[in-house]
Amino acid sequence: LDWVGKSSDFNSCLPASITSYEAPPCKLPSLPEDEIQSLVSSLQKTVTVNFASNLYTQLRNTSAPRFATQRLHLSCIAFDVREVRRVRSPAPEAHFTYGVKADGLQDLLITTEEILVQFWPARPTDRKFILVRPWDLSLLELPDLDAFDLESRALRLLVRLGQPFSALLLAQQHSGEYKRIASDNDIIGQVND
User: Fold this and answer.
1) Regarding predicted confidence, which is higher, 54 or 46?
2) pTM given for the model
3) Torsion angle (degrees, nearest 10) of CA 124, 7, 75, 66
4) 192 CB contacts (<8 Å, ≥6 apart)?
5) Which of 35, 49, 78, 88 has CA atoms 20 to 30 A from the CA of 179?
């Protein structure tokens, strides 16, 4: 799923051309261990352990991504988009840049060839958009299960979920299914503090 460019006709989560994979995948920096430990200590004072442990268990039990009948079934964390507005941009004329606001995320800009329905609270639309963080099992640190107890693993997961991530913009179709909106650049989501 880590590509930018035009979507294929077969499935919007696949690129139209293999050349979309020529660019190196989006590699976001990871936190040093001492910073993770510091953030875990801070969370221990503010977050209930039950909440963190329940979230950890739920995410640990999510299903693996799979294709069935030309549809991608993908576990993810979804953020409702509440505003999409076109903004002026130096992008080529065939491309459009939109300011996007989603619940729980910092505002971001997305450039695409697609014309998106613009909406905001004073001008609602029936079309629903979501930004998703595809689920990545490695966030659970499963190979290191013995290194930490469940409480520590759960709090470490919360720290990692608070870091920037590669997101996908999806638009709901009339059938209720979602279609990926292809972007010209990586979409990097950042959770609000």
Assistant:
1) 54
2) 0.79
3) 140
4) 104, 105, 106
5) 88
Q: What is the pLDDT of residue 72?
A: 73
Would 73 be classed as within a structural domain?
A: yes
Distance CA 12, CA 181 (A): 7
pLDDT tens for 5-36 read 666 665 565 665 655 445 556 677 788 889 98
Going by DSSP bridges, is the β-strand pair 178-181/187-189 parallel, antiparallel, or unpaired?
unpaired
8 A C-beta contact, residue 102 and residue 119? no
Any domain includes 20: no
Domain holding 50, by residue range, is 32-189
Structural domains in the chain (count): 1
Structural domain includes residue 121: yes
Q: Is residue 6 part of a domain?
A: no
Residue 4's pLDDT band (cuts 50, 70, 90): low
